[in-house]
Amino acid sequence: MKQTVYTASPESQQIHVWSLHQDGKLTLVQVVDVPGQVQPMVISPDKQYLYVGVRPEFRVIAYRIAPDDGALTFAGESALPGSPTHISTDHSGKFLFSGSYNQASVSVTRLEEGLPVGVVDVVEGLDGCHSANITPDNRTLWVPALKQDRICLFTLSDDGKLVAQTPAEVTTVEGAGPRHMAFHPNQQYAYCVNELNSSVDVWELSDPHGEIECVQTLDMMPPDFTGTRWAADIHITPDGRHLYTCDRTSSTLTVFTISEDGSVLEVQGFQPTETQPRGFNVDHSGKYVLAVGQKSHHLAVYEIKGEQGLLEEKGRYAVGQGPMWVVVNAH
Ligand SMILES: O=C1O[C@H](COP(=O)(O)O)[C@@H](O)[C@H](O)[C@H]1O
C-alpha cells in the first residue's frame, strides 16, 4: 500500500503533498499554490479526488489525484453558501457536506463524476456549526452546533436533501461545545470531541427510531492543567483500538484505548505536539499519527506504540504557514 499525506496551510495558501513511507518518513512530492485560503480537506471515497474548502471567496475546489505519486491537478470548483469550516462526503461519493461556523449552516453539494456541481440543500440555524459526519451506513448525518451544545441528526435523502430525524438532535452538557467526530468501525459508537471543555463524549448509536445515548464523558486534559480548554480534532485507528484528540492551548495529543465493543474509553497518556494543533490524522495502516501546528508551521509524524497506543516522534517537517488540516490517502 502506498500512502500520500496532504497538509493545508491557509496563511501561505498552499497544499503540501508528501509520500509516507513504511518507516514513517516523509518525502515532499509537490507544493500546490491554492487560489485562496485553504482549510478543510477530504478525499473522495474512490480516492481519485481531493476536495478542499477555500475562502474568502467561499468554494470547494476539486483536485484530481495522480494514482502513482498522489500529485494534484486542478479539476473543478463550485461555490459554497458560507465559509467552509469542515467538509466531508457521503460514502457513495454523490454528495459533499460543508459545515460553516460563521454562517451557522450545513450545505450539501452534488458531485457528478467526482466534480462538485452545485448546492442542493442548506440547513441554517446551526450556531457554531463545526462539522458534518455521515454514519458508516450512510444514513445519518451528525452535525455538531458548537454554540448550542447540540448535535443535529439528519437523514440524507437520495437527492441530497437533509431531513431532520426524530429525535432531531442530541445534546451535550452546557458549555461543552461539540466540534469534530469519529465513528467506531463496528458502527455502534460515535465519539465527539468538545472544544470548550476539552472532553470526549461516547455516543451509543441504536435503532434509527430509538434512543441515542451518551454512555461516557471523559476529561481529555492532564490532571494538572489549569489553562483555557481549547480542543479541536479527533481520530480513531482503522482497527478501532485507539482514539486520539488534540487541545490547542496545551499543544497536546491525548491517547485513549477503546474497549473491544467500542463503548469504553480510557486515557493512556499525553503527547506534547506541535504548537496549537488544530488538525491531525491517523494513517491507513494504523501505524502513524500526523499532526500540524498552526503556530509552529510544522508537520510531526508519530509512531503508534503497543497496546496503549502511546506515541513516539519519528520526524517533523516544515510546511506552509498556519497549517490546519491533514488528510491521508491510500492507493
Ligand atoms: O475552532 C475554531 O473554529 C471557529 C471557526 O473557524 P473558521 O476557521 O471556520 O472561521 C473559530 O472561529 C473559533 O475561534 C475556533 O476555536
Automatic annotation (TrEMBL):
Job of this protein: Catalyzes the hydrolysis of 6-phosphogluconolactone to 6-phosphogluconate.
Catalysis performed (reactions): 6-phospho-D-glucono-1,5-lactone + H2O = 6-phospho-D-gluconate + H(+)
Record-listed E.C. numbers: 3.1.1.31
Keywords: Carbohydrate metabolism, Glucose metabolism, Hydrolase
GO biological process terms on file: glucose metabolic process; pentose-phosphate shunt, oxidative branch
Annotated family: Belongs to the cycloisomerase 2 family.
Source species of the chain: Scandinavium goeteborgense
Entry GO terms, CC: cytosol
Gene Ontology terms, MF aspect: 6-phosphogluconolactonase activity
Protein name (Swiss-Prot/TrEMBL): 6-phosphogluconolactonase
Enzyme class at the top of the EC tree: hydrolase
Transmembrane stretches, start-end: none
Pathway: Carbohydrate degradation; pentose phosphate pathway; D-ribulose 5-phosphate from D-glucose 6-phosphate (oxidative stage): step 2/3
Superkingdom as given in the UniProt entry: Bacteria
